[in-house]
Amino acid sequence: MSQNFAFLDEHSKKEIRRKTLKAIAVPGYQVPFASRELPIARGWGTGGLQLTLSLIGREDILKVIDQGSDESVNAVNIRNLVQNTTGVAETIHTSEATLIQSRHRIPEVPLKPFQILVLQVPQPEPLRAVESSERKTKMLHGDKEYSGAFIKLFEQIMKFGHITDDADYPVMVNDRYVMAPSPIPRFDNPKMNYNEGLILLGAGREKKIHAVPPYTKVESLAFEDYPFEVEDFDDKVCRESGLSGVYMDELQDEKTGETYYVTNDTSYMLEKLNEEAVQHAGK
Amino acid sequence: MKTIVHTTQQVYRQLINASSRPGHTENISEEVKNYSDFSDAALLAAMTLFDNEISFFSKDKTMRKELKVLTGGIPNKDHTTADFIISKAADLKKKYFREVMKGILISPEKSATLIIDLNSIGEGTEYSLTGPGIKDETNIKLSLDSSWMELRNEVCKEFPLGIDLVLTDKQNNLVIIPRTTKAEVK
């Protein structure tokens, strides 16, 4: 059976394309879209996948990551689907890719101009925890009424003494819309602020597309006396590569029970290790 | 083999580049059979985005027919409810800015996009652009009279409401000025 280029039919692509352009014109606002059926279940990256399929062309170089890894099941299957229906080249290197689809991480290597990062979003509505009605949250966004988002953080401070939102920490985009940045760790939030590439976010199950254009102010919500803080890895060193200052996974050695840390962005770690090996060989 | 699927994909990526970097000029070099006297860039931008789910308004009879046949887009008799307005700069009217859809607060995306075919991008009135997508400031010369830009600024002053401009020229250059961009005569 032959398949249209990039799987989706052209009408579906056109609809996604029109909505994506609107999303770029209103940064941080969630534009509703039709969200088509795909060979993977909704909630498994279909929003990101539809964005990728609407964008991708024959000259693109694609990178797909899942929690920092190019090799996890989700990343491999999405990459296979896109490659089988387009024949595009793939890479694991962030700087070589023209199009990056990611689940829950922004790569350690900063985006370059004209690169596009597509993020998979499970829950695009930052106010959903405080307001279950879509009609009402749309009105709250329209009125720029974000007390609810702040109250959620305030209650965490009251209960636990600090803000407990670790991933999907809400951000204010372009001083207008509060946006859910998808479940990227807090560590990645500052990377969005005035970044050089385009960030597109797609929620397939919730049928929303939102965007952060390049050079756009993205500020994490916080209070004057409780400023925004990222996860602290200052005193941690990656066991495999010796890297520090990157986002790390905390793991446990099953034999010794010892806690250790490994760089989460595996392709970045590999690049650094290879650089080191080359330098070493040179000596 | 190059088909319309690849052509529209290519044009779409140029639209993405242009809209996420207001003032950045993309040259649309794709080939198209064009029976209208609009530029290929204007026609291709419309062909990339139009289908039978959208309505468009154009005063130009040939272009109207062309777009209907090529895309299935619904020609609107009325500019006030059209999703897209497509016009040459010389045929612009104040009502294309003032009376078109500019979205509502809960749905700012329900707004019109104006595709305006200019004589030249790179010559004419110099505008300074600032806002999301622009590092510091971009300057661009457009053969678009500043009175139109003032009208556009008027319509876009109540962000997130507003209209987005897709500007094309005879050399098939394309620039997008979304509603977030602050445009001032330099």
Describe this structure in words.
- Chain A has two domains: 10-220, Rossmann fold; 232-283, no CATH class.
- The longest helix of chain A is centred in the last third of the chain and has 17 residues, at 266-282.
- In chain A, 30% of the residues lie in helices and 18% in strands.
- Chain A is of the alpha/beta class.
- Chain A has helices at 10-25, 46-55, 73-86, 134-142, 147-160, 189-192, 266-282, and strands at 31-32, 61-66, 89-90, 99-103, 116-120, 171-173, 177-179, 198-203, 208-212, 218-220, 248-252, 259-263.
- In chain A, strand 2 (61-66), helix 3 (73-86) and strand 3 form a beta-alpha-beta unit.
- Chain B has five helices and twelve strands.
- In chain B, helix 1 (4-20) packs across helix 2.
- By secondary structure, chain B is α/β, with parallel strands linked by helices.
- Chain B has one domain (4-185): Rossmann fold, CATH 3.40.50.
- Helix content of chain B is 28%, strand content 29%.
- In chain B, the strands form three sheets. In chain B, strands 1-11-10-7-4-2-3 form a seven-stranded mixed β-sheet.
- Chain B is globular.
- The longest helix of chain B is centred in the N-terminal third of the chain and has 17 residues, at 4-20.
- At the A-B interface, helix 1, strand 1 and helix 4 of A face helix 1 and strand 6 of B.
Features:
heterodimer, A: 283 residues, alpha/beta, Rossmann fold, 2 domains, seven-stranded mixed beta sheet, three-stranded antiparallel beta sheet, 12 strands, 18% strand, globular, B: 186 residues, 29% strand
